[in-house]
């Protein structure tokens, strides 16, 4: 009998420690709120034209979405400046070398210089990285030409399970911004950057899992079984929001090397309650590990009131009536989603193939759309 109980306990523990294999599916069949009505859908002709333009763009520039520069963060900064909002909160899940957060800080806290290059200098100096500049050579990006002003406070919550990355991030954070619990801004800076670093993975459950010990690359994940591993804590976005007392995330970025759908499932309550303005996640062939498809995740987010686009120089909308199976490309790329009924919904639409296809008429429609919040 004792042997049987031990066997059952071992099986249950293994289930808790393993990532979900149907991670995109929420526990509750949530029906989207009234704000989820999409004012910028596609008719069959526009949907067909958009996917044609998108595929053509990928042929011309293979990494146009994979190495997207997230220009829409500048639009968010501009809207916040116009509304005189002085605080921005970012959750960076799968922080890695923090180049996404650094890109955002270039718009939101420009007084420090080029945050991408500042982080790069610390990573390079440690001498542990084969490619310290990033998979897309992010360290070579220049500061944005369009800067509208600084936020008073930017809170970044960086979750990174790699101990090696965490050490570099901490060194960079302390040198650039100081500890996040400090009440004063660095001398001569307009923005107080509170850069919180947590060595943990994020998924659709809270508990313990194993992660590679010597991870210095960009594609380490919970699925790596052939390397030496160590225990790391796992949490969810919903638990993060509760434990940190966060009411709202302006930007939720996810890059977990194939387990992004699991993180989306673990953000269910936050998304269902419209507590995330913008959502950016990575999509590629590693999604096979979570048993998910882009179509499933896009429809999940659509029901929760979010419109999604392929990120890139020009956005391609993939939500609702705009979806085509040709978008299931299983290639390294980025998706950006926006809460409907917000100012940022207009901004993303205006930067999409749909707006350029219909011209000024649709751009005026976007401009005049009534919204409740920035993003």
Automatic annotation (TrEMBL):
Signal peptide region: 1-22
Name of the protein in question: Methyltransferase FkbM domain-containing protein
InterPro entries: FkbM_mtfrase, SAM-dependent_MTase, SAM-dependent_MTases_sf
Lineage of source species: Eukaryota, Viridiplantae, Chlorophyta, core chlorophytes, Chlorophyceae
Start and end residues of each Methyltransferase FkbM domain: 207-307
NCBIfam families per UniProt: fkbM_fam
Keywords: Signal
